[in-house]
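Sample A.
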Amino acid sequence: MKNIVYIIIGILFGIIMYKSEAASWFRIYEMFQFGSFHMYGLMGSAVLLGILGVQVIKKNNLKPLDDSDMSLEPKDKSVTRYLVGGIIFGLGWALAGVCPGPMYVLAGAGYVSVLIVILGALLGTLIYGVLRKKLPH
């Protein structure tokens, strides 16, 4: 039953991303050209909603559907970690024209060419998993 809840939430999230044009290459390009506030407004509202959601979870000690403890521990801060990770993420976003969340939305919307991007993302994740212990964290 709980898996169905996650699937329904994922489908609703995908529909919202598609309808709000968060998965649109044009909107992303427009954002990087500072041509429109649209994507900045979407991202800003998502960040604010995320902050509020985490605070509600912490204040009310909410638990996931499987009743396990919520793990909201802060990560170690490191300039190298965020700089290198941000550059890799940004280059991937610039080359593909899409970030990880909307990749699956576009695949679900029937854009078959995004499957190449998804394959590349999965390959990159695999490579990271293999090299993880040798990378600075």
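Sample B.
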Amino acid sequence: MPAALSEIDVRILIALQEDSRLTVQELADRVGTSPSSCWRRLKSLEETGVIRRYTALVDPKAASVGECVFAHVTLDHHSAETAAIFIDAVRKRPEVLECYAVSGDADYLLRVAVRAIADYNRFLEEFVFQLPFQVRIRSNFALKEIKFETALPLGGTLGA
């Protein structure tokens, strides 16, 4: 487990969440440290897993994958084996962008991205209904995106 983040580490993370394409020099200038110190801190954040990876955010509508579906999945039989099979299968599906084990009425919450409703129906038929056990699924289609953020609130704005 990584040690507590320093103020400089937090500034590095905030800057990278805004623009992950910054050079080390630009990042160092932005956070107020030397490039060599910034590079060492950056490498440490990567090696300890604080920074998981670097990626580009693609606009779903512009890429013609604009339908967002939230699927609430309940396994009818609960066992470690059933859960492992489900989790392994979900990880292999590219249209499943996120999967969380959750409390409440469902066991899992999936965020699924598809081009059209027919593609979601195909996802159900070819994947969910082919699982070797029974599941119940409740689907909610996103009508409109109100807020979408990927940056964690690291700058002392929690609860603000």
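B remarks: The beta strands are 67-75, 96-101, 108-114, 135-141. The domain at 7-47 is CATH 1.10.10.10 (Arc Repressor Mutant, subunit A).
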